[in-house]
Amino acid sequence: MNPDERNLIHTFIPLLAETKVTKFLESIIGHQAAMKAGAPPLPLSASALGAKYDPKQPKTIDIFEFTPLDVAKRLCQLEFEIFKLVKPQEFHKEAWTKKREDALNIRTMIDRFNAITRWIVTLVVTTERIKKRVKRVIFLVQVASALRELNNFHTLMAVLSGISEGPLFRLNFTKAEVPQEVWKTYEAMQTGMSADKSYASYRISLGDALKKPPGIPYIGVYLRDCTYFGDGLKSMDGLSVNVKKVKGIWDVVQQIQTFQKHPYVWEGQQQRDLSVLDVELAGLPSVTMDEAFELSRLREPRNAKRPDLL
Q1: pTM of the model as a whole
Q2: 262 — phi, psi (to 5°)?
Q3: Domain layout of the chain by residue ranges
Q4: Is 229 within 8 Å of 93 (Cβ atoms)?
Q5: For residue range 16-65, what is the model confidence (pLDDT) as tens digits?
Q6: Which end of the chain has a smaller Cβ tally under 10 Å, C or N?
């Protein structure tokens, strides 16, 4: 046992003996409740997400008139508004799988992840003409690439998930007209976020990001880790302690709080008010997956030939 592990046990044993893991986590770590995020508070409640897509509703903003970097930057600021509120106790005893209020901020991050995925699909399958769909796929891969450069792994994973969803990915004629270098960029990002070897590539990238924040980690990996570590804490009786699993939870919370201290703020020439994008990016209007499949089959019917398509 190395000195760090020994100190960890001496610090935690009195609280672990009471079998109140949440209390010990809070007492050791605490929570930074008020942080400046570089953006005003935004209406990001779950009820505001995934608004019903209405093709008859005139758009007040077209995200494709902005650069992929602009869209990525604003997504970073919006996501950080939720991420900065995540509390250590939300990771305890798989709270996110139980009552919503027990892990409100984690659940909101999960809601936004799913809403972004549906929104990505909607942006493509609601587009009638193939050449316009191709442009949108290219744009969205570029947004993902910008998110990767900005170390926003959580939203990056949501965008990649959207591009790989069935309704979008079955559009073979659309995909065929997307340049190969774009698909190489997409595949490299997929490899970087792969679950292979317990997300080994992603964990290396996350370690690099910790040295140069800001960043937003992919919350799904932390939930997976805390489920594993939590299983090792269930049998604690105050006498026997699985040091590695206690330290595992400590490392997760420590990493999160490191990122929470560093909001996304751009200065000088990079500073630009992108809040106009919130009309689209806060609500993320989308169709259901069933509707997306119907639209996808309408855009590229089974057994269709390229000359048959708009």
Answers
A1: 0.81
A2: -125, 90
A3: 3-308
A4: no
A5: 333 333 443 333 333 333 333 344 444 455 445 667 777 767 677 899 99
A6: N
